[in-house]
Amino acid sequence: MTFIGTTDETSEQNPGKSDQIFMFTQVLSGLLSTIKFTEKSIEEFSTYYRKQLIDNVTELRNIGKFEREYHDYTPTWWYTSQIFVSSMLNRALRSMDVVTLIKMGFFIFDLQQYIFKLHAQQKIAHQNSKFCIVYRGQGISQKDFDQMKRSRNQLLSFNNFLCASKCRNIAMNYARQALVTPDLVGVLFAITIDRSLDSTPCATIRESVCYPADEDIIFSLNPVFRVGQLKSISKGNRRLWQVDLALTSNNDPQVRVLNERIFELANPHCIGWRRLSEFLINQCEVDKAQIICDTLITEIFDEGETAYLHYQYGSIKFHREEYPEAKLFYNFALDIFENIRSPTDIDVAKCYHRIGSVCEAMNDYSTALLRFEKALEMYEKNLSLHNPILIGLNKNIARVYSQIDNYSKSLWYYEKVLEINKNIPSTNDSDLASCYVEMALVYKKLGDYLKAISLLEKTISILEKDQQSNSTDIATVYNDIGSLYEKLNQNSTALRYFEEALKINETNLPPHHPDLAVCYRNIGSAYFQKTDYLKALSFYQKAHELCRRILPINQIHLAISYTDQGDVYDQIGNYTQALLYYKAALTVYQNIDPL
């Protein structure tokens, strides 16, 4: 169960993690139709599970029955039976256990297809009844329940094949059973299904379940609901609640945004498990992505698939900052693609693009430019001039030109990015914001601080409107603007921006976060420039205290904080104290780089 779109830090899930699990399950659901499962898939799963059982006689008997009699029962029968199938699958979905999911892929596909088939058959019979209410009872943690109370009118996803009952009493029994565990809240979900909507398919399965008295309805993988009213069921028991849910339409704006994001992160043209590994790489879940690649590399004999996998290995190494190895994998993929594709093929271009990124990360800017420009030439032959891929590549080129101090060329490419962005209505605003930030850095290097400030102000406007943006990103931009005003000797204005950044970070970050030390130092610096040395010292001391708590003693940030305080004592004429702080700074610097 995940709360979609939440960034609440009190949730059990990390900010954005719930969206990731939802998208992971969506990608999994979509890719299964691109895989050809065979009888061998059942054998491979059975072998895989047997290796985990060893001495578990009961489960060994169950897996034997599953392997022998799989086709004798419906997928819903197996899923609702009390053997390992549903518990194993749901555990794998919750933890994104890619090995188990690959092995169970055939079953997930069969179950999904069976639900689709039943849904289509039953749709005609239900055409005269628009609404239906079903129930599900279960226990959830207190933290998740608190999050649910804060999620009224928000989306909730069950990242599995959800079962429910038309009988409220049956579901209520399950909710009450949860009360035996002190840490759980018993919840009765009352789920309204509007059959007129294009939504997650569900089907009545009373005739094809293992225990007909318990479950009537099953939803296909990853159903999404909007949270409605929460009400206590029993006045004497605050741990038993009813939560109203409504099955959402596939056209729900919030769901549509996530699906568009999935399209960006998992190339729909990728087939099979490679699509899932690409998604995981783009979500920085590279360990899981490597597990998929390691599994697939032993099973493929096609040159194209071999090239794709080595490309993904390159991406995994790149995310781990293992750049020489990444370059080797990308070059290996490039060699294969150049042999089996046309010279301007999009896959060849992608390899050049990624090799350029590796070279940029290795500070080999001349080679990076050659690779980027080669990729750009190929992209422009294959793609429309307003394709979003060109945004990223032109930003790469602009950034490299900035690194080699060719600012006019850098700005030319950034302007090109803005032009492309203007012609793509669906472009992510965060991409535009990041472009403004990078352009501002170039103007800062050129000494045009007012132009840089103007671009950063535009960035703030975008981030404030973007519901997906992180408020601490806004704080970072406020700090950047404050630093620019300092360079213009407008210290009061700089101080105002620094204080705004601190206010945001104090609200959104834990008390010992390094970004707070940055804010304290910036404010101290502004007061120092205003010659308000006592206030400057106060904030420098706050920054220093944080540095001591969060950084090892030989870190440069700590040395800077000693120097800052020494500067204040120097200005107020306390030279003895200033000398002590300068000596402390020197000691730290010498530990960093001994003379």
TrEMBL record:
<dbReference type="Pfam" id="PF13424">
    <property type="entry name" value="TPR_12"/>
</dbReference>
<dbReference type="Pfam" id="PF13181">
    <property type="entry name" value="TPR_8"/>
</dbReference>
<feature type="repeat" description="TPR">
    <location>
        <begin position="433"/>
        <end position="466"/>
    </location>
</feature>
<dbReference type="InterPro" id="IPR019734">
    <property type="entry name" value="TPR_rpt"/>
</dbReference>
<keyword id="KW-0802">TPR repeat</keyword>
<feature type="repeat" description="TPR">
    <location>
        <begin position="349"/>
        <end position="382"/>
    </location>
</feature>
<feature type="repeat" description="TPR">
    <location>
        <begin position="517"/>
        <end position="550"/>
    </location>
</feature>
<keyword id="KW-0677">Repeat</keyword>
<dbReference type="InterPro" id="IPR011990">
    <property type="entry name" value="TPR-like_helical_dom_sf"/>
</dbReference>
<feature type="repeat" description="TPR">
    <location>
        <begin position="475"/>
        <end position="508"/>
    </location>
</feature>
<protein>
    <recommendedName>
        <fullName>Nephrocystin-3</fullName>
    </recommendedName>
</protein>
<feature type="repeat" description="TPR">
    <location>
        <begin position="559"/>
        <end position="592"/>
    </location>
</feature>
